[in-house]
Queue: 3 jobs
Job 1
Amino acid sequence: AQSVTQPDIHITVSEGASLELRCNYSYGATPYLFWYVQSPGQGLQLLLKYFSGDTLVQGIKGFEAEFKRSQSSFNLRKPSVHWSDAAEYFCAVRSNFGNEKLTFGTGTRLTIIP
Amino acid sequence: DAMVIQNPRYQVTQFGKPVTLSCSQTLNHNVMYWYQQKSSQAPKLLFHYYDKDFNNEADTPDNFQSRRPNTSFCFLDIRSPGLGDAAMYLCATSSYGTGVREAFFGQGTRLTVV
């Protein structure tokens, strides 16, 4: 069964500092991987996705993520965070055959301090 | 703009009184998901449709039912809501076979049970 682990429940970063949010997945083959962001009381917005090819993917709002098959990881990074980046971040994995199930990690809450 | 629309945004229902949440999409996607998200938790998949094929998660209570009368609409029925069913309910769509693998989310319906 597919699963996603986000080991950091809460991260606090100073505005302007760099950010890395960790994500590890479990899946029998190369999965489809996603990062979503959620502001309070809102739905989920896609930041970026990985299906195949270049393992470093660029997303919206200056985010990027790197797929590392050897580590089963798909960590999210941003070189300089802004106060508006404060939100909940979810990593997700989707099966690439069969019933299209989409599974989320437990999320990482990002707090930005001035 | 093509999108996923959930109605209502906020729903208050009485304990034990059946309630229906609705989701519509203009994306013509063949996959639709229903997630339950409780406060500070990850979205939990309840079920999803792959075209007309219904996929129920093993741990989804029987109290939760779903209908998808056509491609555009999907409904979540809670037959006898309990206090523990208070949550945000998220609808999402995706596509299979067209290269669109990411899920698009609605804004969610916040359900309160009194």
Job 2
Amino acid sequence: DTEVTQTPKHLVMGMTNKKSLKCEQHMGHRAMYWYKQKAKKPPELMFVYSYEKLSINESVPSRFSPECPNSSLLNLHLHALQPEDSALYLCASSGRTGADYGYTFGSGTRLTVV
Amino acid sequence: GQQLNQSPQSMFIQEGEDVSMNCTSSSIFNTWLWYKQDPGEGPVLLIALYKAGELTSNGRLTAQFGITRKDSFLNISASIPSDVGIYFCAGLWTSGSRLTFGEGTQLTVNP
């Protein structure tokens, strides 16, 4: 299995809602990431988990809350979002085996905040 | 944050033509990655380069890791309509660190 699976693929939420994005990988990768991408722009890093511990938080607002329940799963909890948070949210994972980091992205969740 | 200088920003070519795009950085990287992204999808890894000077091919794609570790190029030979998309270069220091992306090259292939 060489995939990163993200659910849901599309999400529409109101500014008072609470929702969660989910990400799963079974490649044995020990680093997992959340990126945010606006149209026609490169992805921007939000969070990095290394060995299930949060190692990088790119000064992301607290309305985004990451969680890593185990080495295969990564969640992003959303609460009280703003319309400008509408974007494609990408999960990625990478390994440390030999020289092949296999930095792999999921297909993303298209989030619309109304 | 830091970004790579990727050029060109866009290309309009005829089917069958060859394509070349490149990325430069003021910092060195240990790994260079090239991704292709279709609308509404995540980036798909095309080629990964791990050693300075390395030249790697994947079908019609060829990429090189610059000897100074500050640049990389990607060539696509004999382009086809399904090559349409945005191509991103990315530099990586080590696993568990952020990818530094270029701004992307939007490729359009006319049949």
Job 3
Amino acid sequence: QSALTQPPSASGSPGQSVAISCTGTSSDVGAYNYVSWYQQHPGRAPKLIIYGVNQRPSGVPDRFSGSKSGNTASLTVSGLQAEDEADYYCSSYAGINKWVFGGGTKLTVL
Amino acid sequence: DVQLVESGGGLVQPGGSLRLSCAASGFNFSSSWMTWVRQAPGKGLQWVANIKEDGGVKNYVDSVKGRFTISRDNAMNSLYVQMSSLRVEDTAVYYCVKEGKWSFEQWGQGTLVTVSS
């Protein structure tokens, strides 16, 4: 049950696009299309923004998109806005009703 | 609206026990898998345990197996975790989470557990 690997930080200017990677193994990210992403602002609970690799819950702007290739999933934030500055976590089903999270990426809007 | 309200956190000595509770409302609790996720201060998220709708299946991360017990009371719309033999490394904010479509759909605000002498 090792954590998924995310870059510790990412940044971009308002209006730009930023991609955050999430690397797992053939037992989690590579095995299932059950990758999800969470946004967490300081002092707040995480919020689901992507599920099933590339599905957005109701109310989440379409600036947020997800994808997966092999053992690596990615979250892309397009048209960066100031309020997108937050920590982002990926998660994947790892089989036998177990789940694993990434270490988190701090996104800075310059 | 979905509401998940955790309680029961606090300061406990190493080796001690604590029971966290989560009061759920705004959805069909008895039809939802439920999960506990924790976050150590300044650190990332860690899945801790989950429980099936009827309580018949329970799963744990290896580091808490044999020490934590997840349970639920569908009549009271409540989720629990009994934590024993607590260690300093169990210090974290514990979130009660409603599972959704292969994801963690709704989160409570969390309750802080501090294990320290």
